[in-house]
Amino acid sequence: MRPMEIRPQCRACLERLVHLTADLATTDATLRRQAAAAALEIVAQDFSQVGTIPALIASRFHRAIQEISGNRDPFAPRKALETAYLARMQRRLAPASGDDLVSALKLAALGNAVDFFRTEAEVSRELLGPVEFAVADLAELHLASQGAKGLLLYLADNAGEQFFDLPLVAHLRRQGWRVVYVVKGGPIQNDLTREDLYGSGLGEALEPVTDTGARTVGLDLRDVSAGFRAHFEAARIILAKGMGHFETMSHLGDPRVFYLLQAKCTAVARALEVDRGALVFARQQ
């Protein structure tokens, strides 16, 4: 595993996301052009900076698009569709899944297959196919779990994944962990918020729930609330779902962090030293 580094191909992906977000944000052609132009300028300014991270560039331009369009949650309709889809798929897959740790990890990782650039048909093929981890640091988790368990922060990723996360959260709690489920402090991209979580009917099942106090893709500790910072510093283990968390946290070198994700892009796969599309449960090195 290496810290995430921005790659030339990341620019095309960011620009594609700009246009997708602007299209979702407004039907007003003038506002759409203004929002896209402002966001593309952010990409151009930030892309060549030393140490820049794609997820943080995305956070900046998402907020610009929200402000210009007047739409605080452009992905809301998309999130609703993804949530309903993942709820159906989890009900279909869960009966065949065991109640052991590995089965719960695999199910949670499968939920991460959803992506705004992929169709339901593409995702369904992966969800219904064979499930194996390219990296599975189970021994590392066992070592970190010895003795008193304490606080485990579970950093959620996309809306809809909560259905796939719940069995893993429940398993970890049965093992003695005090799991706090963490969502974003407000709408950003298709990431899970309190509103999304409780609207799906799983809020109470996943409590205690907190949020980062920030609207960022992944986690930017410069923007989080004091309350979340206290949780972060007190945690014994931090389980981080999704590529955004890997992008923004891999440079921290924090051995408490375990990443659970599908490597859906070449840049992330290269940093994790796996093939694109691989499922990963990896401890920060």
Q: Could you characterize the architecture of this molecule?
A:
It is a single chain. This protein is α/β, with parallel strands linked by helices and 285 residues long. The chain has two domains: 8-69, Helicase, Ruva Protein, domain 3; 76-283, Rossmann fold (3-Layer(aba) Sandwich), CATH 3.40.50. Helices cover 51% and strands 12% of the residues. It contains 13 helices and seven strands. It has helices spanning 8-25, 29-47, 54-69, 76-93, 101-111, 120-127, 138-145, 162-174, 194-199, 203-206, 226-234, 243-249, 266-272, and strands at residues 133-136, 151-155, 178-183, 209-211, 237-241, 257-262, 279-283. A seven-stranded mixed sheet has the order 1-7-6-5-2-3-4, sandwiched between helices.
List keywords for this structure.
seven-stranded mixed beta sheet; 285 residues; Rossmann fold; alpha/beta; 13 helices; globular; Helicase, Ruva Protein, domain 3
Give the helices and strands, then pairings.
Layout: H1 8-25, H2 29-47, H3 54-69, H4 76-93, H5 101-111, H6 120-127, E1 133-136, H7 138-145, E2 151-155, H8 162-174, E3 178-183, H9 194-199, H10 203-206, E4 209-211, H11 226-234, E5 237-241, H12 243-249, E6 257-262, H13 266-272, E7 279-283
Parallel strand pairs: 1-7, 2-3, 2-5, 3-4, 5-6
Antiparallel strand pairs: 6-7
